[in-house]
User: Fold these one by one.
Assistant:
Number 1:
Amino acid sequence: MNHADVAPNSTEFLATVAARQLAGKRRVFAGVGLPTLAVDLAMRTVNPSVELVYESGICGAHPDGLAEGIADSVLVTGAEAVLSMHALFGYVLQGGNVDVGFLGAAQVDRWGSLNTTLIGDWAKPTVRLPGAGGAAEIVPNAGECIVVLRRHDPGALPAKLDFCTSPSPVRAREEDPRMEPPGHGVSTVITPLAVLRRPDKFGELEVSEVHPGVTVDQVRAATGWDIAIADDVCVTEPPTVEDVRLLRDEIDTVRLYLR
Amino acid sequence: MTATQATKVMDLSTAIATHVEDGMTVALEGFGHLIPFAAAHEIIRQGRRDLTVCRMTPDIMYDQLIGAGCVSKLVASFFASGSAGSLHEVRRRVERADPEPLEIEEYSHYGMLCRYEAGAANLPFFPLRSYAGSDLPKLNPNIRKVEDPFGGPDIYVVPPLKPDVTIVHAQRADRLGNVQMWGITGAQQEAAYAGKRVIATVEEIVDEHVVRSDPNRTLLPAHAVDAVVEVAGGAHPSYTHDHYVRDNDFYREWEPISKDREAVLAWLDAWVHGLPDRAAYLAKLGHERWSALGAGTSTGATGATDLEAATA
């Protein structure tokens, strides 16, 4: 395989690794930004038949350009369906029809709970983040969730979240065992250093792949808890020259998300 | 129609003056599409104060309303402007109470939708399978857990949201107040039925036969609407499907403005207080920029034109 020379913390690298997680998945609920690149690349490589669902109500998007937002008109034109948001969240997502949710977050804990609300003190946060959006619905109700983080350090992967916006099944079960969500929660976290996976619905994230040039010890030191290492930990397969060409020359020609 | 059916058409200034009062709870909806910017600017221009504003995604429009000093409380579920980043006017108030604090009541997207749904359907609350294990119910005591009377697990519920006024933008309406919209229709139908009064701004007022030739596009029948206002370009810098596309440059240009409170105030002076209405705003935007977004060209309004041709 002809590998491209891109750094593991580049958007090209992260988007390609993310795209490969979508092989064999049917229906993907995608957010804006890096997930937009990843689902587009997946459609052109590992999964031409993936159905793209957006929280704005769109099912089966076939955009002829790069979406600047989840309600962009390029997602509407040529789409298979545009539903009301109530139908999208109620019937499509909560009804159990989404296989993979694709999310970002400011913080992820060892069980895959997400913080997108605030950093610091609740009453007087140092950073006010965008909030729950649809993530609080996607994490419990999608079959599984993939999270992409732009940073890998104890701030982004802390022992304890500053705020839990979108809880893992572990936290839901702690509140009430009968309120166990149908979905697996976060199954995969892609960072600039590694791919973390959580094979057990009630288990912890573990280091599954380390990116080329990164050691397991580096990943451990950059994580806010004593993270487990998978028995079969391996080196991440980097993007191919073709993956990077597709991202740069066909998908994000205007450099909206690529820098 | 009969001659006795009254028109609901009025101008924007009259609609806002008639229906939006200081201290009210106001929802301006439109999820990334059909965002009623012209109506928000008229609220700013008329100097409304102490509003509780509701919206799933308070984007640039609410950054402007808050920057203009119209808002004391925000009820919402996502505080950012898509690809354009943070809402710095919101962040200044929340992080530093600068220049004043802003009260926030926060939900998830489906939580907000369920609040509108409960308001619209006159229900005491609406259940959803979110929030188990989340800190959100600790932050917002209006997210509560109830017992399932049918023996299932406990479930979280949210209370009805019944805005004093709901404002939406749409492609077209007839003068009776039947409002037609298509493309992404967000929470507009729920939010409008939840509202005690409803103002719809539209790209064009059309003859009744246009509406009746395609009644599935009527999301808001006339009985749900109090005022219809023709405001071409009323959703800019967001878009109106089949009329004009999103002004992505504007969204990118807003971020540096938003970072500087003085720049926000200067922008509001130049683009809102200093102009009488949306026609003047579009003129200031300039023909070149506006027509580049597809406005007034054959790509604009193709849906309606094709439809009228097909039904002629």
Note: The first strand of chain A starts at residue 27 and ends at 30.
Number 2:
Amino acid sequence: MTLSRRSFLQASAALTTTLAAPSILHAKTDTIRIGGLHDLSGAIDSSGVPMDKALRYAVAELNAAGGLLGREVEAVTYDPQSNMSLYSQYATQLALKDKVDVVFGGITSASRETIRPIFHRYKTLYFYNCLYEGGVCDRNEFTLGTTPAQTIAQLVPHVMGLWGKKVYIVAADYNYGHISAAWVKRYVEENGGELVETEFFPLDTTQFGSSISKIQGAKPDIVYSLLVGTAHLGFYRQWAASGMKGEIPIASSSFGGAGTENVMLTPEEGNGMVVATGYFPSVDNAANASFKAGIKTFYGNDAPILGEISEVTYESVKMWAQAVSETGATERMGIIQELEKGKSYDMPAGKVAIDPDTHHTIRDVYIAELKDQEMVIQKTFNAVQPSDTQMVCNLSKDPDSNKQFEISL
Amino acid sequence: MDYTVIVILEILRAISWLVILAAGLAIIFGMMKVINFAHGEFLMLGGYITIMSHNAGVPLWISIAVLAPLTVGLFGILVERLVIRHLYGRIIDSLLATWGLSLLMIGGVTMVFGNTVQGVSTPLGSIAIGAYQVPGYNLLLIVVAALLMAAIWALLRYTSAGLIARATMQNPDMAETLGVRTSWVYMATFGLGSAVTGLAGGLLAPLTGVAPSMGVNFVAQSFITVITGGASMIAGTLSAGTLLGTISQGVTFATGPVWGDAALLLAALVLLRVLPQGITGRIFRKSL
Amino acid sequence: METSLHRDAGFWVMIAIGLALLVAGPLVWDLFQIMQITQYVVLSVYVLSLSYIWGFGGILSFGQAAFFGLGAYTFSVASINMGETTFPFLLAFGLPALFGAALGYFMFYGKLSDVYMGVVTMVVTLIFWKLINHTAGPEYAIGDARLGGFNGIPSVPVLNVPGKPEAWLDPGQMFQVFMAILVILYIVLRTLIASDFGRVSLGIRENETRAALLGYDVRRHKVIVFAIGAGIAGMAGGMWATYQTFVDPNVFSLEMSAKALIWTMAGGVGTLAGPIIAVVVLQYLSLKLGEMHVLNNNFILGGIMMVLVLLVPKGGLPTLRDALVALKARTPAALQR
């Protein structure tokens, strides 16, 4: 089946070149074009809009510094409207019609798995910038967000040291939630703790009363949340309303990745939560200071709320641009080989390097406590490996890999 | 023992919630046989009004009980005059138009208020029952559901406006002949239904927070409650809410939220097979 | 429309357009356009499933997505397990048709009225959507195919030549196969509508009681029509899965059901060509909107839908036809010859 799939890919690649040949002549050569695919309307626009803004800001910054290779950079962006068929259409359009050199985008794993094979097939370099469940193994894609093992491995021992050994997991009922829950279980047990119960919630659940009662009955030391999305914010609110705030503390490695959740909860509801991601606006370094100041001046009152997903989007553009400057061309294989050297880049989130075997990042992970809607960093872990994806993916050995592996524990 | 009390309270809370959620839709559907597919977005609008006005300094209870119903009610009247009025007797067209309206409202609210809005903490603190604690707000929901049903019942039963409304519902042509401006009755009904939905949105906001796309999470539940309830506004909503709320919460406690939702849907299917006109198509037929 | 089929010019025009596109398309278009138009073809097959049962059988379904999704998942699971796509493609028609027959039996023999039937079909779709979203855990696998919950099933096989699992269709060939399916489907449906069976359907649509009094078994008849529609929707689902090489629970979404309603409405209930045109126009519009960054796209699409319902209540094609007829009537008789 692998063989036949490959022959199909070759066939369609051949078709591409023959059919696409005439329009290459028309393509503009004076600007460097990059693509962006983020949901600007629909159910997950609250994540898509900040990412899109970060992308545009990064491009503006490049152009302000004289562009790339002396040419202006132009962002071609589309709004897939949280709709998978539009994702696949725009992806095809970016690859075949706009002929961009690289594409940044995709938010949910479903959207990534819709467009990743398209970029692979048409040999268009692709950066995916969201935290996700891990396991993508594709040499054409660079995955810059954190994976569960990176954040959970740090957060679980930290909060168990603070609060105790009995853990109760509440998680979103989809792949990210399931895989993350499995990692939490593993680290709880490795650290001598006890997992009381894991409960999964459909992504549209808004009422958590019955589960909160169950948790009250189970009396854990820690509630570990892997809930996602705005509907699930109801959990924290109803948790506080049940008077559980201050009774049992909450830890989460899914909260705060978008950077918007902490602003949507009131201080009374959010205070005291301990969370872990790859970036918080409060990270203290020169790159972050200028990133925050720059994007604030650029957008003024419309400045996006920053979180891992928007910082990583900015990071991805900068990283790609540096690789272009180094190699002196936008040619895909050249960029891939340059980034595979595993150089360390100074980014707002700290030092970031590409792991050549997985095309994921080796990066700093931060643990922070939520205080009055601000993330106050308590602990920093340097150069954390994407150990989950490393278990299943080795692109040095299998450079033709083109799938997302299931990481089972 | 404590746990039993908690389970019963949660079931009551679920029933009340379904009743509050569906009441506005039941008024509109029961009176006018118009399917308002933008019901979830009316709810969302009520939630937004509540939270935005509260963040602007208005006391929370006034936002919930006055501003949200008032604004959404007026908006409902506007929608009725501009759109729905032209679509009476055309169920499918009204459904499609209101579906368009729902998209329009999602986009409009996103543009006006944005999609990242700070919520409001749930008021009223918590109540301890043995080893458990429940939000005091849950009790409020139960009381509001009861009051709401009583108020609608009294309105229909004892006021002349209610009499006119019931007459129009039973036989619009006859009512028109007797001097009732049915078109005004419809406008008022749609406004009232919208206002009740606005109130539901206001009540929901401190519990879950708001987002432009939140409506879709509630629209199916409301419809199913109204349809399985059947033609009678109050008896239908109450009986369907009780039955479906009990089943879904009971199953949620026993197994988890996924099967709770599925049980609600399956129960509705079976019910409609047995009682094709809804519960009040066969039982409580003479009630309001 | 109910006149003899072979004398209907519109019928032949549609077939001619279809065949012309089928032959010339891959030669003229670039790859992007081919993929684009293939999508319109798949969705056209989907919309015909509803246009047929609603316009020519009087059955209003809010749950075409249930069959569409069932077909998509059936195809995906079966083809991943079997390593070839011909039998799974047939299955994508057969299984939803069977399910449609069962659901139709449940509804029509239960004498559900219109609105209630709409809700039942909607509820069934929601149940599918809920349950398929719940299948993220590794325990939910059918053979080699993990159902994947919210994330869906990646790497759904591309259609292959029957009997040759190694011979994958390239995008141009896939377009031709799908276009052929659409043309055949159009011919079959038009023939069916013009047949005795179709006349009875129309009779039932117009007056159910009268049809029953004339001795027709209305319930059985409606079950058959509904099952045919379900099968077509399922087949479209299978085409969708192999076209996208990916399937996720969105195929079961309310939006997917509502889209079929909107396209049928916009194109005109009681026509087959109208909804196809509506698919092309509205999908193209939504694509173009996503390229612009003017206003929120939900806002614009919603506004357009409302205006459509208010101003063109009969749907595009019938309105156009009426306008032409009116124009002709106004022209002096002498000019007409």
Note: Chain B touches chain C through 41 residues (CB under 8 Å).
Number 3:
Amino acid sequence: MARAVSTRRKWITTIVAWTIGLALFFPILWTFLTSFKTEGEAIATPPSLMFFNWTLENYVEVQARSNYLKYFSNSIIIAVGSTIVGLLIAVPAAWAMAFSPTKRTKEILLWMLSTKMLPAVGVLVPIYLLFRDAGLLDSRIGLVGVLTMVNLPIIVWMLYTYFREIPGEILEAARMDGASLAKEIVYVLTPMALPGIASTMLLNIILAWNEAFWTLNLTASSAAPLTAFIAAYSSPEGLFWAKLSAASTLAVAPILIMGWFSQRQLIRGLTFGAVK
Amino acid sequence: MATMHTRSTARLMMAPAVVSLLLWMAVPLGMTIWFSLLRYNLLMPGMEEWTGFTNYRYFLTDPAFFTAIANTLLMVGGVLLISVGGGIALALLLDQAFFGQGIVRLLVIAPFFVMPTVSALVWKNMFMNPVYGLFAMVARFFGLEPVDWFAEVPLFSIIMIVAWQWLPFATLILLTALQSLDEEQKEAAEMDGAGPLSRFIYIVLPHLSRAITVVILIQTIFLLSIFAEILVTTNGGPGLQSTTLTYLVYVQALLQFDVGSASAGGIIAVILANIVAIFLMRIVGKNLDA
């Protein structure tokens, strides 16, 4: 920062930036506030930003009416499950590509990326029919499988970009010092690879949590995650905005917080290392 | 460094990922191609018969197909225009020095993490509802007639919602690229008497060009598959006004049970996405060598 920025200019930028930032964030804030209103207050004219009778009844009612916790736990099982299975498959693959690359490594990486570009509708019909025949429709295990495959290319890519940054000399040094393979993995590799694995995991949980093509098309009720639960509000009866807001707040909050912590990794994961 | 031993180990380590992805891609895609050549309706089981390219002919001559393609292009193009244009402006703004930079950054990136069904329903009801929505209230406050968004301009409404979700992504990536710009280069240009506009055109924009390309390509891939936002707001209507290719295939397959023509539509979507993908792969591939 060699240039001095005039204080006046800094204040103007501050006002403009905060206005835009708050405007973009407003729908989320509004949903959060509405979730504490009564249904009557939620549609009141003029609307009240802060000065209403704060109530938790929407949260209670959302759970009582529709067993919200079931959908919430489905979301967790599907998002975390597909991430863990994905990591189990991807860690060895990315490891091999980063540490013993061959001429074909690049081809394999690009091919994996190309599978991510296959539009979901291109395989919707056969997947649906295969799932129907195998009894996997509306099952959590089926969705875990699908989301694992949908996100696997991103997991492999992210891990690969992290692993490639681990210097190979360290492994050789450890070997020279007489470390066995087991010791090498436990004491040298794991500590160096963990941050990359952790952020890959975080990003992938976010992506799987918000996935809304397969979760909507392959579930009905028993395996339905929050995406499908919220979608049920598209044809509502009576007043429902406060309840919709409460359900939405619970569905978005955990992922929003995780997302805020992983915004740097997000760039790496979603641009396949093309922007740093 | 790779000996025969490590090479075979490496192959073994890669096998699960490669094989599972190959199965995931090849088997269903092969089945889609096969189905697309059959007359196959789930309501008439056992009546499947070979029809060659009839499904494609049917799909390609169906007026709904052209509407869907036009809607898809309008939606992808509209969202790209808003998110990339807005993203560049926002990134330039956030790159300046101001108070609370970190917090504003968190506020701007937040919409990207909202699940699609939530953002679509929140916008549809609490903002775009013609009677109680905030937009209608603001319009009435100024003495204007409220807009019935999803009845009058359904596709535009969906574009707004999707653009709100993707603007943060474009902003974040462009901001990251902007921050890697050499400060001294800008200063040198400034000392040589270049104004803000020419600095932007000759230094900032060329520096951003690759990031912009990446944003466009990645967003296009995701935007071609937009589904939930349409399902929970308009169901593709009124009429076909907000039906995209993805949504049309869904209707054919899971609502009309016409597996044959849905498969043909799916294959057409795959071909369209591939055209975009080729360009993206080229850029990413170049980067791998560097």
Note: The first strand of chain B starts at residue 38 and ends at 39.
Number 4:
Amino acid sequence: MSVDMRTFLAHVELANPVTTAAGCAASGRELAQFFDLHRLGALTTRSITMAPRAGRPTPRMAETPSGLLNAVGLQGPGIDAFLERELPWLAQRGIKTIVSIGGGTVAEYSELARRLADAPGVTALEVNLSCPNMEDRGRVFAREGSTGAEVIASVRSIMRYDVPVVAKLAPDVADIVSVARACVDAGADALSMINNPLGMAIDTEALRPSLAAVTGGLSGPAILPLAVRCVWQVHAALPGVPLIGIGGVMSGRDAFQLILAGACAVGVGTALFHDPYACLRIERELEDLLQARGFHRLADAVGLAHRPPGSAPRHLLVDTEESTP
Amino acid sequence: MQVTGTVLTTRRVDAYHALTVVAPGITERYRPGHFVSVAVGGARTSMVTRRALSIHDVKSDYGGTVELVFTVRGSGTAWLAERRARDTLDLVGPLGRPFPLPRDPVHCVLVGSEYGSAVLFPLADALLERGCRVDFVLGGASADRVFGAMRARRMAETTTLTTEDGSLGVRGKVTDALPSVIADTRADAVYACGPMEALRSVTAVAMEFDIPVQVAVEESMACGIGVCMTCVLPIIGDDGATRMVRACAEGPVFRGERVRFEDVGTIPFDALGAPGGGARHAS
């Protein structure tokens, strides 16, 4: 029997829990050359900004042990081009689309939300509070609960009630739970974590930083344990909040870790650079793992690792409970 | 498309490595200028980015083979250099925008610096098929770094070789020999591949002669399929505006005069979306 892989992001149903991570699938067209995007749980776009952005100078990328440093700087054509060309392309095909937005001020996020509020084809809105590349006087919204909450409250008040607002959090904070709680209190319907932690590499031939931007976001398998920890802590504190677990997922087993820690969906990012089919493979592997462990529904595995030591997994108890008169 | 290819042969070509891989799906759609990306390090690798490799040759035997040429630059290419016959490789391709070919049988000079020459041979085949005259200018730092001199001599009308140390052919760079080759062959077009600095000077020479020049750039890439946005360079568009354009998806072949070589590695202040305003009005 196959596993029921459906999952809910707030009230929005996704056919399966695997999404692309923001900034790792552009706006979908590139991956559509390889497979039918309908097979994704959802496609998350790169972070859309108000104005076109040329991004950072090159080199923008450096490979690190089990990871990748990047400093792209949110390169993109801006909201006008996105609404004109990219979103309609996705909407016409009926592809579930999580639109990521990035801004430098609360007003900019609000304006982006306003522009997207009436656009057809937005399944959910992900607010990138944490992009370490934003040239915003070095300040990152996700660093404090209060600034993150301000953005979320404004965006939530503008977006239509039936479009979930997802706050994307950074791991470079003293207490991710307090930031998560502040965002949920401000109206976030779901949270996604983690964005790239900041890292740095130095080129030992050139004797200077490997990236033109000096520091960059670290992604890839190196950050999976960081993502599992963040999802675990936030799920423990806010068990009712849907979480999208993101960070270094390369296999179904990695995704399963995030699910067991409390994520109801999983974002795949850097793995797409290695394997354009990564999302499909990971979904298949995750389903096989669930099936091998006797799960009938993905939902039964969400946060399961939080059960007290010594207790049996709930889903395995179902049969005995039902047979009890 | 993604293909699990099987290594057929491996060989050293002077300072470079060449791998022939059975990769049927890729050869069918290949056009000169296309490249492939290769996963390195095996199944449980810690290397998460793919390596973009030039295609030196495509043959129809064994259902379709590609010959890939590379130089060892780091642990990824070192791993590739250790592959042996019957090993498998995870290839994605063909990728990128191929060389545009002239409609008429014109005279073409093909300029290759270092192992950038590799991509020019399938191009030369396609040009010869169209009745074009092909002349090669190949160069490198030393004799062992001039790629494909023998093959060039067999297929081209003339082949000019240059080395910076004078160990083979003319002492100097490809661009030192290029003006006289263009003049002698009455060239109508130039095609070039190699390091950015070489492409910059080849473009300058071609522009002096007022003939079109197509360059294939070698930018470092993480994905090769257009999603990672790391391989960008400033390119002037049809509307005159400069954009940061992906070498993998919109390139690797560009019209030379459209590449702002002197600004590669920077965001020109007038590029679309440059910090501080730039050409934000353009769309």
Note: Chain A touches chain B through 46 residues (CB under 8 Å).
